[in-house]
Design brief:
Elements (H helix, E strand, L loop, with lengths): L7 H14 L3 E3 L11 E3 L1 H20 L4 E4 L7 H7 L1 H4 L1 E6 L6 E3 L19 E4 L2 E4 L9 E4 L4 H5 L2 H8 L5 E10 L14 E11 L4 H18 L7 E5 L11 E9 L2 E12 L1 H10 L5 E2 L6 E2 L2 E8 H12 E6 L2 E6 L10 E5 L5 H14 L5 E3 L5 H11 L3 E5 L3 H4 L1 E6 L5 E5 L3 H8 L2
Parallel strand pairs: 3-9, 19-20, 19-21
Antiparallel strand pairs: 1-2, 4-5, 4-6, 7-8, 9-10, 10-16, 11-12, 12-13, 13-16, 14-15, 17-18, 21-22, 22-23
Helix pairs in contact: 2-9, 3-8
Amino acid sequence: MLVGFHIMSDVMEKIVSLCKRRGFIFQSSEIYGGLGSVWDYGPLGAELKRNLKQAWWRSYVHERDDIEGLDAAILMHPNVWMASGHVTSFEDTLVDCKACKKRFKVEHVVGKKCPECGGELTQGRQFNLMLKTHLGPIEDEGSLSYLRPETAQGIFVNFQNVVNSMRRKIPFGIAQIGKSFRNEVTTGNLTFRSREFEQMEIEYFVKPCTDEEWYEKWVEDRFNWYIKFAMTRENLRKRQHKEEELAHYAKACTDIEYKFPFGWSELEGIANRTDFDLKQHMRLSGKDLQYFDEESKDKYIPYVIEPSGGIDRSALAFIVDSYNEEEVKGEKRVSLRLHKNLAPIKTAVLPLLRNRPEIVKMAKDIAADLKSKFKVMYDDTASIGRLYRRQDEIGTPYCITVDVNSLSDKKVTVRDRNSMKQDRIGATKIMEYLDEKFK
């Protein structure tokens, strides 16, 4: 039975506990009391993130013919952020409670009282979300720079470089995965909103008159991508922005929202950014960023459709969505039913008796052989029942058990995480068996 979302705080507490206990997510600098809203990914969390990024990159850069990959620098010329509008308009309006000293975004406050304690609030103040730094040995106005608040601008300033070097014709896209930084004030819910985060973004360049068609295509494509990787359809929805919600550069925007334990919240946004960004960079840099169509002889500034998602939010959503509790033989069984391609460990090799050297050797040999293709865990530190429960809880799709009979019949038992069904197969057939399962 899947845990219901009606027990909101209880579910999130279980997720947070599992993430730390099993090595998915740790508080940054925890031994020093932690750093607020900054997170470290443990051994299993690092694997999950890597698998998620690999799945996205394969879907859009490797499997499509119309998208190129890019890895732009985090540090960029300060004029980039002047052109994009971040220096002058990337702000939140904040109010402080005079009683409990907590700070809130204006849009999260109803009336003139603190939503936490009912205390009196201060007047709203503007707060820029960009993190500042200085380049060079002297910290002065001339050395001021910023840690990028989004990856998109690195794509826009490289638009002509990609067109020229890869001989690209419109429509085409540029994809990038990378770190971004925002001096968020209202943070929380584990990795949902943090100050250092990772984005997966595509800027898809189209002819202006075709932008609305491409926008609709990308909304559907990105919605279906999450379902492809086993996210529950009922926990996803599309929410189109009202006109007053739209960013200054956007003609339209749709959020893909997920039903987290703390409520419906944005997983990804797909925006029609029009030609705003390229126009702005043309104006400030003095460089011609227009596209010349060789066939029609037209020259124009492309419109841009931007699917922009957060790796950290996606990882959290996949963990929440796959979390499963059920009763098996009178005991609670917890499992993460992650898509096989996203699971941190693909298979675990478990010797039934760790005091039998020949069984241990056979199990270790199997694990060593499988490591050439899969992320494998070998574990002999508990009874087989406890070993199965550990692997269920971290989402391992298949467990391979080597027992006494394996020494004579040269067969092993392979157990499926979801169904707990067991297959007895020849030890020499394991690689072939798993290849078929992971197709």
